[in-house]
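Duplicate of #3305? Posting structure anyway:
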């Protein structure tokens, strides 16, 4: 028994390395096709603007060196891999492969840089950043690959753009540098999570082997496995703040860059960059939502509300996506009022709609709300391929996807229905699924009907906001994250606001006292330095200047912090913050200021 316990850490490391090697070598088959293909497309785009010798040099290196080396390495692994004890050697070979491949594509970014064309600079940046985003999940499995992949891939382009004399090129260099920092930091965090997940998985497998030999330890081993799972969920929930900070800043920077991009292709390319940022944000939000639900840190805000406006808004939002696929999206929502958490119900319906649009290829989609006794059944019917009855229970499991064995990121992560199930359990709302192969599927969730006074008050219309309130408004930003402060400052100035920024309550107070006129609104991060909160910072300012409309911005998901922030009475905004939601919230604050004045 003691010998087995002493051997376990070494065996665990071997199993983790073996799994890392398996995943990395499985990805070679896709890389040898997608890598040269994407490089060929990029070469075609730059054929008329870059010296042919530079184009052909990089292309020849990829085709004649990298691709054959990758194929040889894959075949050698298939023939020569001898088990977990041999994995370290094969991981070292992958480190060499990733470094030279990244250096080749990074060199293309420097050699093909066109100082006189912002459009082609953005094309290069989009290609390199999209390649980085694609590589995130792959290199995160083996931590050394992060430093051997992203710097060689992005630094040559950053240096070349930063040395250019044009201001726009330096802005692109700043954006690319932010992308490098964000990608590296995010992947390092993801690497920790994956390493822990592997460790938990193989640790449990080793425990099972020991339990088969000594069955009397079964109860203790089960308890240890459950605690490991709870620890993983708590870790993911705690990581929310750190993961959301760089994504929050990056999203605001991309939005702030829009007015500076001109030309025919520039805005379209920037939209793709913004779409990539949103996709990454959706991925992490989904992962974090699952962990928050598992860890029990989501507390429903149950109240009566009108269901029709919510469903109509979502149907209108998804209609263009359905039309783009040749589908017809209809909504029959009625005038029902229900009692539940509107934010969580919106998340359920979004996941239903997203799945329906993604997996329906002909026909139509119907979003309906029907009265069923004392409940309203929110139903989503589609004419997709349907789900075999053997898989009806499987679709609610994490990462389970039908028809996506290659794990195509455009087909989602397989977390949508897992989140639906957890939300339904949290709210105690029944969910149902019926499907016929070749005919389509129907997903539903039943929500209690609002009655009496609650029902009469539930139909309050959505607030309207006036962007003219932003012109000349003095907005005080308090955040100890330099990137977040700078991004908010740039964005607020584009909205014609006067942005004042500080990293602490003391600095904010000094800044406010130095102004000739009072501050109109405050945006304060919840967690500041020296164990101070945004609530305390706002209180310090209001003691000197009286009531000032304020909002708390936070990336925290811990229930005690969320409860404190909510009970403060200030508007609560969650990072990463969509610029349009920020604008709406700020207009509401300024409207309060005008109304109070």
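Output from current build:
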């Amino acid at each position: 028994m003691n010998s087995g316990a002493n051997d376990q850490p070494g065996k665990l490391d071997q199993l983790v390395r073996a799994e890392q090697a398996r995943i990395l070598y499985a990805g070679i088959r896709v890389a040898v096709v997608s890598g040269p293909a994407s490089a060929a497309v990029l070469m075609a785009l730059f054929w008329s603007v870059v010296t042919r010798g530079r184009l052909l040099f990089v292309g020849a290196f990829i085709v004649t060196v990298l691709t054959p080396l990758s194929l040889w390495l894959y075949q050698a692994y298939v023939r020569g891999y001898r088990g977990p004890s041999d994995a370290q050697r094969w991981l070292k070979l992958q480190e060499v492969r990733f470094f030279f491949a990244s250096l080749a594509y990074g060199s293309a970014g420097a050699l093909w840089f066109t100082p006189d064309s912002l459009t082609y600079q953005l094309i290069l940046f989009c290609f390199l950043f999209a390649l980085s985003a694609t590589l995130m999940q792959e290199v995160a499995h083996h931590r050394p690959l992060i430093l051997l992949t992203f710097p060689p891939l992005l630094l040559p382009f950053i240096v070349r753009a930063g040395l250019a004399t044009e201001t726009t090129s330096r802005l692109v260099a700043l954006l690319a540098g932010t992308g490098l920092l964000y990608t590296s930091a995010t992947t390092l965090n993801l690497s920790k999570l994956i390493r822990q997940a592997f460790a938990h998985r193989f640790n449990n497998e080793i425990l099972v082997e020991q339990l088969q030999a000594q069955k009397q330890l079964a109860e203790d081993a089960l308890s240890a496995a459950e605690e490991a799972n709870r620890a993983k969920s708590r870790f993911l929930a705690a990581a929310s703040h750190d993961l959301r900070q760089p994504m929050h800043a990056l999203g605001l920077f991309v939005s702030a860059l829009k007015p500076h991009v001109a030309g025919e292709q520039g805005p379209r390319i920037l939209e793709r960059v913004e779409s990539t940022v949103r996709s990454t944000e959706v991925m992490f939000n989904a992962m974090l939502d699952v962990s928050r639900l598992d860890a029990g840190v989501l507390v429903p805000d149950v109240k009566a509300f009108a269901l029709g406006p919510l469903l109509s808004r979502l149907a209108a939002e998804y209609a263009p996506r359905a039309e783009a696929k040749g589908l017809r999206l209809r909504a029959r929502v009625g005038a029902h009022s229900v009692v539940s958490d509107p934010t969580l119900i919106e998340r359920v319906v979004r996941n239903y709609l997203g799945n329906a649009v993604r997996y329906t290829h002909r026909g139509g989609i119907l979003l309906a709300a029907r009265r069923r006794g004392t409940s309203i059944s929110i139903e989503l019917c589609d004419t997709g391929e349907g789900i075999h009855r053997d898989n009806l229970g499987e679709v609610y499991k994490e990462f389970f996807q039908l028809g996506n064995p290659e794990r195509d990121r455009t087909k989602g992560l397989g977390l949508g229905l897992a989140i639906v199930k957890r939300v339904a359990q949290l709210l105690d709302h029944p969910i149902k699924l019926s499907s016929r192969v070749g005919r389509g599927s129907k997903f539903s969730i039943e929500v209690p009907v609002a009655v009496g006074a609650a029902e009469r008050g539930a139909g309050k219309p959505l607030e309207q906001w006036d962007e003219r309130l932003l012109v000349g408004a003095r907005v005080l930003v308090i955040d100890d994250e330099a990137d977040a402060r700078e991004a908010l400052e740039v964005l607020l100035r584009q909205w014609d606001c006067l942005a004042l920024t500080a990293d602490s309550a003391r600095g904010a107070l000094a800044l406010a006292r130095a102004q000739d006129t009072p501050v109109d609104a405050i945006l304060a991060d919840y967690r500041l330095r020296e164990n101070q909160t945004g609530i305390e910072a706002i209180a310090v300012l209001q003691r000197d200047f009286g009531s000032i409309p304020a909002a708390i911005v936070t990336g925290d998901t811990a229930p005690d912090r969320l409860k404190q922030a909510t009970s403060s009475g200030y508007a609560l905004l969650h990072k990463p913050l969509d610029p349009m939601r920020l604008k709406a919230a700020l207009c509401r604050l300024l409207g309060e200021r005008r109304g109070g004045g």
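Confirmed duplicate; merging threads. The radius of gyration is 27 Å. The first strand starts at residue 303 and ends at 306.
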